[in-house]
Amino acid sequence: SQKIEQNSEALNIQEGKTATLTCNYTNYSPAYLQWYRQDPGRGPVFLLLIRENEKEKRKERLKVTFDTTLKQSLFHITASQPADSATYLCALGNYGQNFVFGPGTRLSVLP
Amino acid sequence: KAGVTQTPRYLIKTRGQQVTLSCSPISGHRSVSWYQQTPGQGLQFLFEYFSETQRNKGNFPGRFSGRQFSNSRSEMNVSTLELGDSALYLCASSLGGLNTDTQYFGPGTRLTVL
């Protein structure tokens, strides 16, 4: 069955450093991958979408890479701030198929 | 521009009953997706509707069904409720769909099954 793993349940980093979150998948051939941010008690907020033919996408302090050979996506937040503390979810999709979320990584940026 | 709205926000039902949840997308959005979120299973995709047609479907039993109206509003129905259906049900809307566009999530409906 399809499986998505995100590097760790929780990640603590110091303010100003780069946070790197990992999303690995098996038994799935995604056409696209998305990253979301979710704060407690709130719905997810869409951050970035990257397609299978794209290697990298950037948006302000965010960068996503997508390696379909390694079956992995990396999500980077540069110059991290305490306001970046949240749970980050990756999700994989393909046309007409199930859209699958990872379990999420809870990021804490310490001042 | 108004965001995605979901009604009701909270709901308590008993086992065996059925429930209908409603989602009003952002004006102009043609895609509505539904999700179930629980502490144990995380966020799981139910289905996506685009212009009144179901375009993608997750791995949920047939008790979970949905539909979309011509004004893009969507409803989700769960029949014969089970205790395990207690969850936060989220919907999201977008212009072009899951594969093309930013998804905007609503605040969710918290369903409790007793």
The count of strands of chain B amounts to 11
Share of helix of chain B, binned:
under 10%
What is the CA-atom radius of gyration of chain A, in angstroms? 13 Å
Which structural class should the secondary elements of chain B be placed in? Answer: mainly beta
Number of strands of chain A: 11
Q: Would you tell me the overall average pLDDT of chain B?
A: 94
How helical, in percent, are the residues of chain A? under 10%
Query: How many strands, which pairing sense, and closed or not: the largest β-sheet of chain A?
Result: 6 strands, mixed
The outline of chain A comes out as globular
Which runs of chain A of at least 5 residues are low in confidence (pLDDT < 50)? none
Distance between the termini of chain A: 40 Å
pLDDT < 50 stretches of chain B:
none
Topology of chain B as a string of helices (H) and strands (E)? EEEEEEEEEEE
SS content category of chain A: mainly beta
What is the CA-CA span between the terminal residues of chain B? Answer: 37 Å
Percent strand of chain B: over 45%
Description:
The complex is a heterodimer of chains A (111) and B (114). Chain A has no helices and eleven strands. Chain A is mainly β. In chain A, strands 2, 4, 5, 9, 10 and 11 form a six-stranded mixed sheet that branches. A five-stranded antiparallel sheet of chain A has the order 1-3-8-7-6, with no helix packed on it. Chain B has strands spanning 5-7, 10-13, 19-24, 31-38, 42-50, 53-57, 64-68, 74-78, 87-94, 104-105, 109-113. The model of chain B has no long low-confidence stretch (mean pLDDT 94). The N and C termini of chain B lie far apart (37 Å). In chain B, a hairpin with a 5-residue loop joins β7 and β8 (74-78). Chain B has no helices and eleven strands. Chain B is globular and about 35 Å long. With 114 residues, chain B is mainly beta. In chain B, 0% of the residues lie in helices and 53% in strands. Classes of the chains: A mainly beta (111), B mainly beta (114). Chains A and B meet through β5, β9 and β10 of A and β5, β6 and β10 of B.
